[in-house]
Amino acid sequence: MRTAWIVYLKEITEILRDRRTLIAIGLAALATPIVLSVISQVATKTATQEYTIGYSGDIPTGLGELLGATSLKLVPVSDPAAAAMRQVDLGVAFKPGEIDEYYDPSRQSAQIADTRLRTVIGQYSAAQAAAALQQRGIDPGILTPVRIVARPLTSPVQAASNAFLSFFLPYILITMILTGGFSAALDSSAGERERKTLESLLLTPAPRSRILLGKIGAITTISLVAAIAAIGSMLVALSRVSLPKESGIGHITVSPVAVPVMVWVAILIAISFSAVTLALGTLAKTFRQGQAYVTPLYFITIFPASIILFIPDFNPSLAYYLIPILNAVLVLRDAIVHNAVEWPTLVVTSISLVATGALAWLAALRLFTREALLTRS
Amino acid sequence: MAVERLEKTLGKNQVLRGISFSAQPGEIFGLLGPNGAGKTTTLRIICTLLSPDNGTVEVLGFDTRTSPQEVRKRVGVVTADIGVYPRLTARENIAYFAQLSGVPDKELRRRVDAVIERLDVGSFAGQRAESLSSGQKQKLAIARAIVHDPQVLMFDEPTSNLDVLASRDVREFMVESKGRGKCVIFSTHVMHDAERLCDRITILHEGRVVASGSTAEVRGDGRELEDAFLELVGEK
Fold first, then answer.
1. Greatest extent of chain B over all pairs of C-alpha atoms, in Å
2. Whole-prediction pTM
3. What ipTM does this complex have?
């Protein structure tokens, strides 16, 4: 293993002197807090934003105050339907015993205003009905013969926080591992051919399998550093950024169980990606060509993370955990959402990712020992 | 070093068609031929980067097919493509190849220092390779090729990208290595260099040996080596 260690140290030295890799890691650390800050600001703005209702007719007694308290501003208009198309977010015509509502479903502001209006009207109607019953000496409780008393088993705030993290954290982890190791992997493979050092390297008596191990080790290290920088900055940002309480999210924290799972999965993904990108880079004659080969990996990795976003309750069978990357995303989600480790899925995921890395290493080794590697260049 | 009936096909092109020659310690052996004659392929087979389809190569008693690592330990190669690691210093480049060539840690510093002194690399040893001139890079390439003190040195068109001064340094180094008892294989198509440096030569043309012997024998009486070469490859 001495050879692998020699190659590892040399690769790390070169990587640390490479501006491209350092910029990638720096961006990885900066990008997450910036994205989170933007999300937080947009969410806060959406929650506290005032929406305008253009109305005609007489406002029922007390309703105006209720609407004002929920940031719905009433503006008199002659034609609520026409106004709702552009002038205001929502149009309302107050009639005796009826409210006609006009809105454009293609506008997000109209949808939010509609939801708020319906909530307020529901509360107003219930209060009016209760008052009328009380005047007649009847208990208003008859309006709700069966009441639901919600007793959440876990903190709803934490659950919402976990739901957010279960998408965001795997996504950041995977993309940053890939981003961090991308440049180093190509420099270490296609770069060797491009700057014509490959032949000299292969002329040494060092076993090629050890040379590759050293290279994979260095790329894995840099990938993990990028991922740690990104996740670390994300957690710092999450501890400072708070999302609106209305959505059930305050400060976001990672469950204690998720941390070791995240570290383990990050190591496996980094090893696997390093071997895959190194193998793809070995196929390329130049750094640019290598970029063309490796870039599709981004799309392949983003897809599984998106599944969690669109199907949060996706609970596949154990066989699905054999699919690399998807399995990492699922295991991370399970650890974050359920705050528990499901050992069978973790074991299958580990086997799958280690096998992917080993196969990619073997592929890279085959490429490294092919004569075409030299004669094609 | 002995090459026997070497054959090699790359793609659809039969590059070597049964060439044989041998080279001894303490001599500069010239491998001459026009572009595409098979010189580089021959050298790549000798240093184990390629495998022969037929025939054998023995270096200091080791067969390139059965003992490639033993061969690599005993061979140093300098090519026209001076590839160095740009973000490592000259010293780090040399040390890296010394380590990969099996130089023990306790001897590493002494061996690197010795090579740096021998090739006059000291003035730029601490500089990153990306900032070196072509001549300095070629010196660096030679340094890393000899840092493990190989018995056989192969130079594949080593001066083709160099200026006059740097070329002279390379030639002087080859002569010095011969004086140290090394077996020096020199592949070139510059007849003037071959004539001045080589003790024996083999001329390749279209994958075949068309002449072999001492430089004087191949040249013939009263002729320039270039004339003999052109005649042998059918251009005169």
1. 57
2. 0.79
3. 0.88
